[in-house]
Every structure is written in structure tokens, then in C-alpha cells.
Amino acid sequence: MRIAVLSPISWRTPPRHYGPWESVVSRLTEELVDLGLDVTLFATGDSQTSARLVAVCPRPYSEDHSVDPKVAECLHISEIFERAAEFDLIHNNFDFLPLTYSGLVETPVVTTIHGFSSSRILPVYKKYNDRGHYVAISDSDRSPELEYIATIHHGIDIAEFPMSEAEGEYLLFFGRIHPDKGVYEAIQVAQRVGMKLVIAGIIQDQDYFASKVEPHIDGVTVEYLGSVGPDRRADVLGQAIALLHLISFDEPFGLSLVESMACGTPVVAFRRGSMPEIIRHGETGYIVDDIEGAINAVAAIKSIDRTQCRADVEQRFTSARMARDYVRVYEKILSRESLDDE
């Protein structure tokens, strides 16, 4: 089976620090290679992979500002579709834009929809609904206006997130600093319960950081680590008492939740989006509705068995399981295509 995997080019695959889509693509690609598939990864030139790498963009545009994003994206996407005949299937992880090429090639295209940035992009998905094959990353993120071939939750390489023996030293916020992600709400909870909060992540909204987050950073009660890369990520997650994920949007998935639980650290999250699909309430964390609920959850967090958090990730959220699920989807699509050709 010859599979072409299209990765985004905002960040390297795998990312050095931030880059959730690229992180998922990297893990999937490596697992597919391990399963014996013939895989070609279309990504930035500095990407690292055991698959065959094709790159027309040497560096990711979020790291090298001399790269024009639109020009790089056009060259990147057109490359895979101009070579479509070389592959049995194209796996698109680049959002909606590549769909506009899919009607020009015979090679089937499966698209993982990594969330909807806006309802305004839905018409593109609807246009190619009958021709394409869509995978949702959570049941909560399925649009009623689209048809899906599967829901496949993301998976991680649990070897990169060893179980921590720590009992926890602080509350943790881990993610991009943006109003959607609930950094200020995490600060409020930490202040109310009298615990230290550690913040780790890229600053995506500078005004929000300056007005709502930075005034509370004193290095003692609230500490900001900046962006934490793979070399420190497991340690920062594993040393936490709990991960606070008090989001204000319907998040399609949350990789940081899975990574946290793999290290044995339970999660307290607002009841939005995919949270009930990831967290087992009362077993691997708590799903709450407001700040008061989060405060009560933190007070009860020691009742969570940290080994159960790890066990649940081992059962449900490994990259090996994710790859097997995708192979079943590939086989299903290619079987349908074969029947249509008869």
C-alpha cells in the first residue's frame, strides 16, 4: 500500500516545540512505516522521518519569516497532487485547501479534519463531501452537514511520556496562551486554592498575555516557563498535581490532556467539546462546569489513582492504536474504489 501523507508546513514534522497537527502526523507516519506500509511524507525540508520525505519548502514559515506562507502552501500542496498517480491513497492533514485539488486526480483522498477554524470553511468540505473521505478526531467535532468514514482519536508515543512517581508539586496550565484556552481561569483557580500554578506554552495572543496573565507572574505563586519542548515536556507534566484545562471553546481534541494522563497527572477540564471523550470523570480527572467546580475538583484530585490515568492512555490513546485505525480506513477506501472500478 503506497500512502502519501500531507503534513502542514507551519512547523517542522515533528515540531520542535508547538505544532499539534505536525505532532500527530509525525507519530502516524512513523507507525505506518513500522506496520510495513510504503509511506511518503510531504512536509518541510527539515522534518525528521523514517518515511520517504518530499519537501519543496525547506523551513516552516512559523519559524522562518522569510518564507511566504501562501506561496509555500501552494507549492507544497500542488507537489503532492501532481505526483498523485504514484500513490494508492493521499492522506490529507492540511485542512480544507487540498480538497480543491482532489477533483483533478484519480487517487482517493482521505482528510483528517483537525477541527473547524471557522464555519466559513464548511462550504469547501460540503462541496467535496461525495468525493472525499472524512475522518473526525472526536465525535463531538463531527459536523451534521458532512458524512464521515470514521472517528479516530489521536494517539501518542507513550514511551515519550513515562509514568511519573511524583505526587505533584503544582497545578499546571499547558498549551497556547490565548483566551480560548483558559489561562486566566487557571490563575483564578490556583489563587483560590492557594497552590502554585506553572504555565507552559507559546504566547498566541500578546494583548491577552499582557493584560490577563503577565501581571500575575511572580515566579513564586505563578511561574511562566515559556514554550516547553519534547526534552522537558514529560517532566513538567509528570511533576504536576493536576492539569487545568478550563477552555472556553469546543475543543475538537486535546493532546496535552492525553500526554498529562500518560505521565500519571489527572486533568480538570470544563465540559466543552471533546473533553468527555478524553477524560473519564472521577477516574482520570474531573469534568466541571465552572470555576467553583474546578476548585472543588482540585480539592478532590488526590482521590484520583495516577496509575489509572496511565493505564487509560495505554488502552485508548496510543499512536499504535491510531495507526491501526487509519490502516482500516485506508483498506476500506481502497476496497470501495476497487469495487467501483469493476
What's the SSE pattern?
EHEEHEHEHEEEHEHEHEHEHEHHH
Low-confidence stretches: none
The general outline is globular
The count of β-strands is 13
Lateral strand order in the biggest sheet? 3-2-1-4-5-6-7
Please tell me the overall pLDDT: 95
Number of helices: 12
Count of domain modules: 2
CATH topology of the largest domain: Rossmann fold
CA-to-CA gap between the ends? 19 Å
Structural class based on helices, strands and sheet pairing: alpha/beta
Oligomeric state of the chains present here: single chain
Report the radius of gyration as a whole number of Å: 20 Å
CATH architecture of the largest domain: 3-Layer(aba) Sandwich
Please report the first level of CATH classification, the CATH class of the largest domain: Alpha Beta
Major beta sheet, specifics? 7 strands, parallel
Percent in helix: 25-40%
